[in-house]
Design a protein that fits this description.
- The complex is a heterodimer of chains A (486) and B (261).
- Chain A is built from twelve helices and 24 strands.
- With 486 residues, chain A is an alpha/beta fold.
- In chain A, a hairpin with a 2-residue loop joins β3 and β4.
- In chain A, α10 crosses α12.
- The radius of gyration of chain A is 22 Å and the shape is globular.
- Chain B is built from nine helices and twelve strands.
- In chain B, the strands form three sheets. Chain B has a six-stranded mixed beta sheet with strand order 6-9-10-3-11-12, with helices on both faces. Chain B has a four-stranded antiparallel beta sheet with strand order 2-1-4-5, with helices on one face.
- The relative contact order of chain B is 0.18.
- Classes of the chains: A alpha/beta (486), B alpha/beta (261).
- At the A-B interface, α9 and α10 of A face β4, α2, β7 and α3 of B.
């Protein structure tokens, strides 16, 4: 007789894993799509649709020329089928009235979609403490709390609107942190980017509420190429949150975003992401390719940029939110939890480039791999010749669940400044049967025991997330892991 | 010895229990009955199956029961999950309490206590009410409040880990507690604290099984029965003087019993 069979747990796990991806629905809405394929005419068409000024069209065309000369990188060793860039639709937008003056005129189906995602946008239901910019496929649908923010001089709108209304800022800053030629996917994004969020915090202003963008991919055959630009003027500060989901399709969808942050003297930007794109099924069919370039420039003295991310979705995640620490005594931070299950792959980390003197950076990365997944931390810490008295501390921990998953750490360290300090710690652990038994023998159920240990493992990072986000991240992780141990 | 008339029903009945791990037999027909208010001691050489017996009663997944039954309050619990056994009132004090990095001791104790309370149809405690309860229980094991904010058992000394076990026992108020070498690694003062804690928690309605190598714990907590285990079996059962005799003569003395049987 068997008193405790591992099969029992395995079945339990499978039941939970079969619980469908909660956000996998498709909104049935009439969309305006342009033809598949990528060429100069398509780029001109996108630019025309968005009524862009000439400098922006030139920016796009230049990027496209560069992209054509570039080769798709393969150094991360991520195994995926060649992407056919001519088989992607580069612009897809839900059909709406020409000019929308208020939320009441937004298609109710769209509002319903965001309602279902837990992001109510209407005046009566909207979240009270967070301003939201909702992006659906290639366009921004709505931004809440605009008037309230405007009273403080804060600009929070879609980047398309910013191009129209704040052209000077776009022209001054766009592409200054992530140049079009930076990498293959950044060049592609620069050529075809559709929408995204724009944030401007004026001098001396502490943004009165958290700002948030919610990205929703709805079409199966169009890529999403959003572009986000955040500028924090002297002595200002802002906390920005980003969430993402997509329906379940059996094809892969490309998501190649670019995010640029700029912090001037004494300014601080906190950028938090909870990424839950559709990850594909247990056999690895479908899911989002999440190839993203995110970078912040600490331009001013004592400026600070802090990235926190919880990466749980996508078939493949390939991103390194980074900081260029130019200003004296500027601070860069990177807190990351990356969880992979089934056949997911994640190659993520950060680059901390210390250029100015007395700059400081902290890296805390927690990778959790379950199922047959592959999870790598890849990071670079560089001390330039002028970065005297600068310091870095890195901690990279991996947790393995089951015996089929893999975890790697690739820390690159380059120092040209003898008067600087770099510290790196790394560890790998596994949830042991003894730990599970210990918790169970105290009345704590198997699933809860696993999620307790995982969230314990991630605590250092969760502590950095805004409150509501931390709770959501905890739940998300538990949901993702249900049934992966056994 | 246990055939004398008892007034109440037994808490725990282990009947002719055999068990194996990786097809290796560890227990070979163990029988043991614990009535309310009784304290049993199990002694024996390392590797005789004492710890295995305690883990099997608690439901450890690495062991398979090949024969026999475990009954708790008259119900067969052979196929219950470890958490179900704990919730219903079985407590195992670990010989080597497990470290769980990142999980706060306070939160762990609260979730655990509430799981038991839920089973008992008692109201679950929120953080504030639980703080009150735990403060009271900390007294029993003379533990500092600072222990609560650390990760479960992480960086605890041997003695602190054992006291944390008794704290859990105090919070869970089990019907039966099996304490696996709770005395090992304790200095004299810590041993007294732990022993007096155990005595405070137990009463005429609870049962205790002490697994130990040493008389010194049994000096503090006098058992009603002492069982000697060898090679997966209980080879002799006596009263508390059996432990004293064992202390004097050593386990070699018990080897003769096996030959007799």
């Amino acid at each position: 007789m068997v008193i405790f069979d591992n099969m029992v747990n395995e079945n339990l796990v499978k039941d939970v894993v079969k619980e469908p991806y909660k956000y996998g629905f498709v909104t049935d809405i009439e969309t305006e799509k342009i033809a598949k394929g990528l060429n100069e005419d398509i780029i001109r068409l996108i630019s025309k649709k968005k009524e862009e000024p000439k400098y922006l069209l030139d920016f796009r065309l230049k990027a496209f020329k560069k992209w054509q000369k570039m080769e798709e990188p393969d150094w991360a060793g991520l195994g995926y089928k060649q992407i056919d860039y001519q088989d992607i639709i580069y612009y897809s937008a839900p059909k709406q009235k020409e000019k929308i003056s208020s939320l009441d005129e937004v298609d109710p189906k769209l509002l319903e979609t965001f309602d279902k995602l837990g992001i109510p946008l209407t005046e009566q239901k909207k979240l009270t403490n967070v301003a939201v910019d909702a992006v659906f496929d290639s366009v921004s649908i709505a931004t809440t709390f605009r008037e309230e923010l405007a009273e403080h001089g804060v600009i929070f709108c879609s980047i398309s609107e910013a191009v129209k209304n704040h052209s000077d800022l776009i022209e001054k800053y766009l592409g200054t942190v992530v140049p079009a030629s930076d990498n293959y996917f950044a060049a592609l994004n620069s050529a075809v980017f559709s929408d995204g969020s724009f944030v401007y915090i004026p001098k001396g202003v502490t943004c009165p509420m958290d700002l948030s963008s919610y990205f929703r991919i709805n079409s199966g055959d169009s890529g999403q190429f959003e572009r986000t630009l955040i500028i924090a003027e002297e002595s200002s500060s802002v906390s920005y949150l980003e969430g993402c989901t997509a329906p379940m399709f059996d094809t892969n969808t490309l998501h190649a975003a670019v995010v640029e942050l700029i912090a001037l003297d004494d300014a601080s930007i906190k950028y938090s992401t909870v990424q839950n794109w559709y990850a594909g099924d247990e056999e690895g069919i479908g899911g989002i390719f999440n190839f993203v370039t995110k970078r912040g420039k600490c331009l001013g003295k004592r400026s600070k940029i802090s990235w926190s991310q919880v990466e749980t979705g996508s078939a493949i995640t390939w991103k390194y939110p980074s900081c260029l620490l130019l200003g004296e005594e500027s601070v860069g931070e990177f807190y990351s939890v990356a969880l992979t299950n089934n056949l997911q792959q994640a190659d993520t980390g950060t680059k901390m480039i210390h250029i100015g003197p007395k700059t400081k950076s902290t890296i805390v990365s927690k990778g959790i791999s379950a199922g047959n997944s592959k999870n790598s931390y890849r990071g670079l810490v560089k001390m330039g010749t002028k970065a005297t008295g600068s310091r870095n501390y890195s901690q990279c921990d991996s947790m393995l669940i089951g015996d089929q998953a893999s975890a790697n750490t690739f820390p690159y360290i380059k120092s040209q400044q003898p008067n600087s300090e770099i510290e790196h710690e790394a560890s790998t652990c596994r949830i042991s049967e003894d730990q599970l038994f210990y918790l169970q023998s105290r009345g704590i159920e198997f699933e809860e025991a696993v999620s307790m240990m995982v969230s314990g493992f991630c605590r250092d990072v969760f502590n950095q997330l805004p409150m509501e986000f931390a709770a959501e991240a905890d739940k998300l992780l538990a949901l993702k892991l249900e049934g992966s141990v056994g | 010895m246990q055939s004398k008339m008892k007034e109440s029903d037994p808490i725990l009945e282990v009947e002719n229990l055999s068990a194996s791990t990786d097809n290796l037999p560890i227990l070979k027909g163990v029988s043991l009955t614990v009535y309310p208010g009784e304290i049993h001691a199990i002694m024996g050489r390392n590797g005789c199956g004492k710890s295995t017996l305690s883990k099997i009663i608690a439901g450890h997944p690495s062991y398979n029961i090949t024969n026999g039954d475990i009954k708790f309050l008259g119900e067969n619990i052979n196929s219950l999950e470890p958490e179900e056994r704990s919730q219903s009132g079985i407590f195992l004090g670990f010989q080597y309490p497990i470290e769980i990095p990142g999980v706060s001791n306070l939160e762990f104790l609260r979730v655990s206590t509430n799981a038991r309370r839920k089973f008992l149809n008692k109201e679950e405690l929120d953080t504030f009410d639980f703080e009150e309860l735990v403060k009271e229980k900390l007294e029993i094991v003379k533990m500092d409040h600072a222990f609560l904010s650390r990760s479960v058992n992480q960086g605890f000394s041997g003695g602190e880990k054992k006291r944390n076990e008794i704290l859990q026992m105090a919070l869970l108020e089990p019907k039966i507690a099996i304490l696996d070498e709770t005395d090992s690694g304790l200095d004299i003062d810590a041993l007294r604290i732990v022993a007096s804690g155990i005595k405070k928690i137990s009463n005429s309605q609870t049962g205790i099984i002490l697994i130990t190598h040493y008389q010194r714990l049994l000096d503090e907590i006098e058992p009603n029965y002492v069982h000697v285990m060898s090679d997966g079996q209980i080879i002799k059962t006596g009263e508390s003087d059996l432990a004293l005799e064992l202390e004097k003569k050593g386990y070699e003395w018990t080897d003769n019993f096996i030959k007799e049987t």
